[in-house]
Structures are given as structure tokens and as C-alpha cells.
Amino acid sequence: MTTTPEPTDLDAFVYSRQPGYDETATRAAFAGAVPLRTIVIFCYDPRAAAIPTQLAELWPDEIYPGDLILDDHGNKVGSTATIFPIVVAGGRATDALRSITIGHHLFGLQRVVVVHHTNCGTSSFTPRGLLEAYRTEEGIDLSNMYSSDSLAIGHLETSLSYDVNLLRRSPGIPASVEIIGMVFDIDRNEFTVLTPPGG
Ligand SMILES: [Zn+2]
Known about the structure:
With 199 residues, the protein is an alpha/beta fold. It has a single domain, classed as Beta-carbonic Anhydrase, Chain A (3-Layer(aba) Sandwich). 30% of the residues lie in helices and 20% in strands. It has 6 helices and 7 strands; from the N terminus they run αβαβββαβαααββ. The strands form 2 sheets. The protein has a 5-stranded mixed sheet, sandwiched between helices. Strands 2-3 form a two-stranded antiparallel ribbon. 26% of the residues are buried. Zinc ion binds next to loops. Zinc ion (ZN) binds at residues 43, 45, 48, 90, 117, 120-122.
């Protein structure tokens, strides 16, 4: 049996704890305040940080990072950004699913872009090497914790194709959402589309 904890001061701005909270109205207000259209998944490597900015330069209908929208009291009530980044090791899709589902629920998504990049740190080790190192150095067995196909990048076209298929087959992403896979050349700042929409 679970009990609902009493609200604390930290909960003063938790939406679902406000008097008269209306979930449907709150969701509609969120969708109006946030023009999210596209989620971009990419690596947490600092050299990859400009990926969403550069995609927004390539695609005139996208805005990133955009501007914050303030109300008369200076409260942050929205943003003009149409791209939300999901920044994870290697830009692997497995880490992004929950965030995509929530993003679509709140704001309505049109496309998801998976970007893997050249010279990625996740291509410097193998799944087997990582599992073995954890076993011998930490005494931890991770062999049942992650899919070995998502742990490291051994071939960019293979990893990208795997991730696009993982997202496309996931029940957490409606079929109306376009999935695009791209490789980013970290030194030349160039994108190559490897899995175009519908491909
Ligand atoms: Zn990387």
C-alpha cells in the first residue's frame, strides 16, 4: 500500500500539486508555450555540442537555441526553440526513448534525428572489453544490463541503422514521427544523411 506524501516547500511549483490542477488544460498550455518540433540525439562529447545549432542553420524552419520568453514579472514562461537535444554517450537511441515519449505527449513531435559522429569515444572500446573491465576492475557483472548492440560503436552505418530501427519499431514513438539518421564529421563539421525518412 502506498501513501501520497504531503507537499513540501520544494513542491510549491510542482504543477500537479497546484490547487485546481487540470491535467488536460496544463498539457494544452505547455504545447502552446513550447514550439518543440524536433528531438536531436547526439553524443555528450564536447566536440559535438554544436550539432543542434548547426542543424538549425541547415534547416530554416528550425530554431535553436532560440530565446526564452519572459512574462511581465521576468518569469520564464516559454521558449522559441523548436529543437530539444538529448545528449548521451555516442548519441545512442536506447537512452533517448523515454524522453521522446514524454516530448511527444507534451508538445507533439514531428521528427527525431539520431546523430552519430566520427572519432567517437564509444568507438574506442568494444562491448566485450567494457564488460570484462567492469568484471575485473569493479567486480560488477553488467552482462544482463545493456544490449551489447547499444554499448559501443564498431561501425557507424551499422550503429546508425540499428538506432533508427530501434526507434522506428518502438511503441513509444508514433508512426507519424519521422526518424532520420545522420553521421556528423567532427573535424569537417559536415552531416551525412545515412537513413533518410522512410528509408
Ligand atoms: Zn562521441
